[in-house]
Specification:
This protein is 69% helix and 0% strand. The chain has one domain. The chain is mostly helical and 122 residues long. The termini are far apart. The structure holds zinc ion (ZN). The site of zinc ion has 7 residues, from helix 3.
């Protein structure tokens, strides 16, 4: 009986893969398009900003992602210059492959450099 309920891992991947990838991507895009967050938040969630008064490499990313979801590219870049890269990294989580690891490695390096640039107050 247990064997009858067991789902072959390969079979499960074949079924769940496309649905998860496409459905998850579309669901995330729908949320980013439908939900509007305030341009100036009442309070900041970033502990680094609380402590230092400076922006970390991720500050503004939430607002930027929601702006990108509505096609407002310049507004998104205003909130966080690396938000287009961040959105590609976010959506890549629904996909797999060696390219994703390379994307994330390069992306993390870019955010590290951006963080230094922001913290230095440029
Ligand atoms: Zn921050």
């Amino acid at each position: 009986m247990i064997d009858a309920l067991r789902i072959d891992a390969e079979e499960q991947r074949a079924w769940a893969g496309p649905w998860f990838r496409i459905g998850g991507s579309l669901a995330l895009l729908a949320v980013l398009w439908a939900v509007t967050v305030p341009a100036e938040p009442r309070f900041r969630l970033c502990a680094f900003h609380w402590l230092t008064g400076r922006q970390c490499p991720l500050c503004g990313m939430t607002r930027a992602l929601f702006a990108l979801g509505k096609g407002r590219f310049s507004e998104a870049v205003h909130f966080n210059a690396l938000s287009p890269l961040g959105s590609v990294m976010l959506f890549s989580l629904f996909w797999s492959g060696a390219w994703r690891a390379r994307l994330w490695s390069a992306g993390i390096a870019a955010f590290a450099v951006y963080g230094v640039w922001r913290v230095m107050g440029a």
